[in-house]
Design brief:
The complex is a heterotrimer of chains A (175), B (400) and C (199). Chain A is an alpha/beta fold. Chain A contains six helices and seven strands; from the N terminus they run H-E-H-E-E-E-H-E-H-E-E-H-H. In chain A, helix 2 crosses helix 5. Chain A is globular and about 55 Å long. Classes of the chains: A alpha/beta (175), B alpha+beta (400), C alpha/beta (199).
Chain lengths: 175, 400, 199
């Protein structure tokens, strides 16, 4: 984006415009990396008339290439670990990750199972955590709103894919 | 013109999954197509394999109740119920009838929630999003009931070993009855839509027919089997919990197509409404839990079978006398029905696949940036986009 | 009304079990069931529906649930399954593999078949070594057994002869070839342990 050779003033306006668009219509993609479906049906319920996340501009997308927010559920299994990384890498920058549910945060009841790598932020950096088993749709909306508010107030979270070392030391609480 | 692919010899494989917004279970499907017609279908499971059967061997009997509840978030009560019933037989603990009745009550409420959920997702796959939104709006009624009863919307945790956790108060009873009245009215409407809407019927009537013999041969279970005329329902065949006090009428259709599967599930909703009302009116008095439940369970083996919303759930539990099980084997209905989807897929249009897989929706282009080409001789090669692009360039260069 | 439904299911199960026992007559000596003593017979109890608490495998449900389990040699398995299927007796629920541990040196494979409330369990024991952990495939008789057999071979390392497809079903693609998670010696640690074995 910086190669447009715009003046600083125009760059500033462009950045503001992008931020405005990003905050008002975050498109989400959902991936279940080993969840029990409990969180997934609550995410789906979030989109249906009672809760209607679309009024906040949140739209569920089919393709990672169209999405701004990756909503992850469940602990990460060995088989879906690479797939989760791939989806994350396919998403255009800047991208944000919301981990939904106890398992996504800590591994939940599945801690110690042989096919479970662990929680989401052991594989990709997470920007917002929504606790609960499963979280209520209101909580999921709250998590998204908190993420958007953080974006509105401060600098967006790191947009480059962190190195392995950074991943290890990644402190999600800063957002 | 050296590297031309002859359409007769080569198959085009369309990979589907494991990621998609409406996909609740990430499975990876590969459909080999000849034009629009599917000629071969394979599935790769295991994206959500967590190793629960092994994990259960390292947890004690009570902890496992919470682990098996999280095998599936949609029928969480059923898994906990199947496990609890089995462990209670092993421990030779008698469960009070009131607890059994409340278990059945929650199981039927869960069936209502699960069928409405499925109905919405199936409508979504058919491209009927209005119906999806309506059915999920109405489903919130049942979620409210479950929350009022158990305190949670999805993993209710209603069971303990030897009974249930809660009783039903008069206020809760009223919430349930009011909710059911509303849902019954809506279900009549849905049944009307599913059997008379012309556009919808084009996607369901005569599609994916499973004949009675095939259903038996493939070992299909649950409503899918009953839509093909298989008289099989564990609630009727081998009554468990309180199904002997509150018998259920089996719902069977004979057509075996997608429409019949819609009809069976919707008609089962009426049975569930009736049963829930009957239980509320005739709730047996007594305790909610057995007086005491042993921490260690003496050696033995037990088979526990329960009818989940999707079909028969089977548990085999083996105890070695310690406070942890020796082996817990779980067979869920989806594994049986998956085989039927694969065999049904052959000969159908690719566009019908989402409807056949209802709940497992395809995402054709986003993920796999590689095309798999498989010749009839069994040679397998993976083509990258780069190779495909080069092939295209060469093909046209040679042509000119 | 409730009483009637219960007894119907029970009566059907008893009939089904009698039929199964008649079919399995050639292997009757393998049936694992305590022989009813004279007292039981004097009371006029049907020896088949012998109190389930004294059978090996128990069953949940009401009344006197009916289960019949029979121990077979791997070579006899196909014939027994064929006999039951020819008579159209029930359907295959699933195949369970149980590792009995290094001391016993055996893996027990259980084939659960059901008709109504009646369950017949065929128990076959195989060794734990690569050469002895071999069982014939029943897919030629029951095609839907394919998934169960794939699960059996990947989880317990049993070679299923003549099975149409022996690909991985549940385990990840990069799972090490000779690690079988449901074997007793496999410690249910986290996946990092598997990664360590892998590299």
């Amino acid at each position: 984006m910086t190669n447009l050779n715009l003046s600083d003033e125009w760059n500033g306006i462009l950045l503001k415009l992008k931020k405005w668009a990003r905050i008002n219509s975050p498109w989400a993609i959902h991936y279940n990396s080993g969840s029990c479906n409990g969180c997934d049906i609550e995410i789906l319920a979030t989109l249906t008339p009672r809760y209607d996340a679309e009024r906040l501009g949140v739209k569920l997308q089919g393709s990672p290439r169209h999405a701004d927010v990756l909503i992850c559920t469940g602990p990460v299994t060995l088989q879906s670990r690479d797939r989760l990384r791939r989806i994350y890498e396919q998403m255009p920058d800047p991208k944000f990750v919301v981990a939904v549910g106890s398992c996504a945060i800590s591994g939940g009841v599945f801690q110690g199972c042989y096919n479970v790598v662990g929680h989401i932020d052991e594989v990709i950096p997470v920007d917002a955590y929504v606790p609960g088993c499963p979280p209520r749709p209101e909580a999921i909306i709250d998590g998204l709103v908190k993420l958007l508010t953080a974006l509105k107030q401060g600098d967006p979270p790191p947009t480059e894919r962190p190195t392995e070392l950074e991943l290890e030391n990644y402190d999600a609480a800063t957002i | 013109m050296t590297a031309v692919i002859s359409p007769k010899k080569e198959k085009f494989i369309i990979p589907i999954g494991p990621q998609h917004p409406a996909l609740k279970e990430p499975g990876h499907f590969e459909f080999a197509v000849d034009g629009e017609i599917v000629t071969e279908a394979t599935v790769r499971l295991g994206y959500v394999h967590r190793g629960i059967e092994k994990g259960a061997e390292a947890r004690n009997w009570t902890q496992n109740l919470y682990l098996v509840e999280r095998i599936c978030g949609i029928c969480s009560h059923i898994h906990a119920l199947t496990y609890a019933l089995g462990v209670e037989v092993l421990a030779e603990v008698e469960v009070p009838p009131r607890a059994q009745a409340i278990r059945v009550l929650v199981a039927e409420l869960e069936r209502i929630h699960s069928h409405l959920l499925w109905f919405g997702v199936a409508a979504h796959e058919a491209g009927f999003d209005t119906l999806f939104m309506y059915s999920w709006r109405d489903r919130e009624t049942i979620m409210d009931i479950l929350e009022a009863l158990t305190g949670n919307r999805v993993n209710y945790s209603a069971n303990v070993l030897g009974g249930v956790k809660f009783d039903i108060s008069d206020e809760q009873r009223k919430v349930i009855l009011d909710g059911l009245d509303f849902l019954e009215k809506r279900t009549h409407h849905y049944l009307d839509v599913a059997t008379s809407d012309g556009m919808f019927l084009q996607r369901t009537r005569g599609i994916g027919i499973t004949r009675l013999q095939d259903a038996q041969r493939l070992g299909i279970v649950g409503p899918t089997a009953r839509a093909s005329g298989v008289m099989r329902d564990v609630r009727v065949d081998a009554p468990y919990a309180a199904y002997d006090m509150f018998p259920i009428n089996i719902v069977v259709e004979t057509a075996g197509d997608l429409e019949a599967r819609f009809v069976v599930r919707l008609k089962e909703l009426f049975e569930s409404f009736r049963l829930v009302r009957e239980i509320l009116d005739n709730l047996p008095p007594g305790d909610l839990q057995a007086k005491r439940f042993p921490r260690r369970i003496k050696p033995g083996e037990v088979i526990s079978r329960v009818e989940a919303p999707r079909g028969e759930v089977f548990y085999y539990i083996r105890s070695n006398g310690s406070d942890m099980p020796e082996r817990v084997k779980v067979r869920t209905p989806t594994l049986c029905n998956m085989a039927s989807v694969l065999s049904l897929a052959v000969g159908h249009h690719l566009a019908d696949m989402p409807m056949l897989l209802v709940g497992i929706d395809p995402c054709f282009s986003c993920n796999d940036r590689g095309v798999s080409i498989c010749s009839s001789q069994g040679e397998h090669g993976r083509w990258t986009w780069e190779r495909l692009r080069q092939f295209g360039i060469d093909y046209y260069a040679n042509k000119v | 009304m409730p009483q009637q439904s219960k007894s119907t299911a029970q009566a059907q199960a008893e009939t089904a079990l009698l039929a199964a026992e008649a079919l399995l007559q050639p292997w009757a000596s393998h049936i694992n069931k305590p022989q009813p003593d004279d007292k039981t017979l004097a009371r006029g109890e049907n020896p088949l529906v012998f109190p389930y608490s004294r059978r090996r495998i128990k069953l949940t449900g009401h009344g006197r649930p009916d289960v019949l389990d029979i121990s077979l040699q791997p070579a006899e398995l196909l014939e027994v399954v064929q006999t039951l299927m020819d008579a159209n007796w029930g359907y295959l629920i699933t195949i369970t593999g149980v590792d009995l541990g290094p001391e016993a040196g055996e893996i027990e494979v259980l084939y659960h078949l059901a008709q109504g409330a009646a369950v017949v369990t065929l128990s076959v024991k195989v060794g734990r070594e690569t050469e002895t952990a071999v069982i014939p495939s029943i897919c030629s008789i029951i095609p839907s057994a394919s998934f169960f057999e794939r699960e059996l071979s990947e989880m317990l390392g049993i070679t299923v002869q003549n099975t149409p497809n022996s690909d991985r079903l549940f385990l990840p693609d990069d799972w090490p070839a000779d690690v079988y998670p449901l074997r007793k010696e496999f410690v249910a640690g986290s996946a990092t342990a598997v990664d360590a074995q892998n590299t």
